[in-house]
User: Fold this.
Amino acid sequence: MNENNTNINWYPGHMAKAKREIEEKLKLVDIVYELIDARVPYSSKNPMIDDVLKNKPRLIIMTKCDMADEKENKKWEAYYNKKGLSVILVDSIDGYNVKKIVPLSKEILKEKIERDRLRGLKPRPIRSMIIGIPNVGKSTLLNKLVGKKVALVGNKPGVTKAQQWVRLNKDLDLLDTPGVLWPKFDEKKVAINLALSGAIRDEVLPIEEIGNYLLDYLKKYYKDDLAKAYGIDVSLDNYEICDEIMKKRGNIKSTDECFNLIIQDFRNCRIANITLDRL
Ligand SMILES: Nc1nc2c(ncn2[C@@H]2O[C@H](COP(=O)(O)OP(=O)(O)O)[C@@H](O)[C@H]2O)c(=O)[nH]1
Ligand SMILES: [Mg+2]
Assistant:
């Protein structure tokens, strides 16, 4: 249950392979859990996912909702709902909403379940899988869903490649390895958001660029929180702000260190609960 692709670079070859692997697994499941990070609900969503999933029933799970801006959570949830997609916000650490995932899955699949029943098919557990970009919280959610009562179901007959399933309850089996989606960052803004959220390595972009972007964003949307967090005048330019912070904090000795501090504070939710994608 542990795949760690956060440090790899994604080349077209990797993407093609990841796509193929997901398509293979897709045939085995009734429903897909597409994980996106509530702090970056646009940037963490692979835009090619619709091509890969086609008409496969899907539940969008917005992870880390505890770290994101509550108002924005609601807006994004409404936005995806309006597009006809089912969405749920979760905190996979404390478990908020995690128990709703199975009943919601049954609801999404209720027509299919009813069709199968009318055709006289024996009822069987729903099969599902988790997919998402690196660091979105796939393993954490899987572990939370499974809890302590890990029950490996074993291979299903007719499945060529060995697949382990975990029985969550009598109604739902989950593939025990999540599908890793490649992050997509053609847009600069998306690349920066993915670096800030931890989906891609910081070193992919210069710290100065990420830092300036974050500061500008905070000045625009989280001005009061920013002023309060550092005790600074946020009408100053970014480099003046860094100078102010350096004066206040002896351990911060350069602008890069200052940008790094703000980035770490963002990641640890020390400034506020922040959402970096706006509708
Ligand atoms: N606060 C919070 N942290 C989370 C949540 N889900 C995952 N994380 C954290 O995000 C990081 C990446 O999670 P992980 O499950 O390893 O991501 P994966 O690469 O998609 O499997 C870890 O530090 C988790 O503790 C969540 O819902 N809330
Ligand atoms: Mg993982």
In short: DSSP finds eleven helices and seven strands in the chain. The two ends are 34 Å apart (CA to CA).
